[in-house]
Give the backbone structure.
Amino acid sequence: MKIKEYMYQEIIYEYKLLKAKQFNVRMDETFPQFSWLRRRLTRGFRINQEIYIREDARIGLNRLILHEIGHILGYNHTWKFTLMNPSWVFRWLKRF
Ligand SMILES: [Zn+2]
């Protein structure tokens, strides 16, 4: 596990980069209520102030981190085409 930093609006947020296998174990423990498919498609999640990112998440990594910061800031998922869309494919706008 590597700890990285990401700055958003002058605040530094830490996120933990986990290898895919470790990430899946964490995911299964944390979200047993999710379907297996959802747990495997998820590339990042947050527990309280802690952000976990799967190491092989490359496409849209920046937006993924911002999405998780959005959760820390109190934003919930939306189906609008913004950062808080649960699917990385639809995170077109860089605003919460
Ligand atoms: Zn989310």
Notes: The pocket of zinc ion is lined by residues 67, 71, 77, 86 (CB under 6 Å). The chain has a mean pLDDT of 95. Residues 61-72 form the longest helix (12 residues).
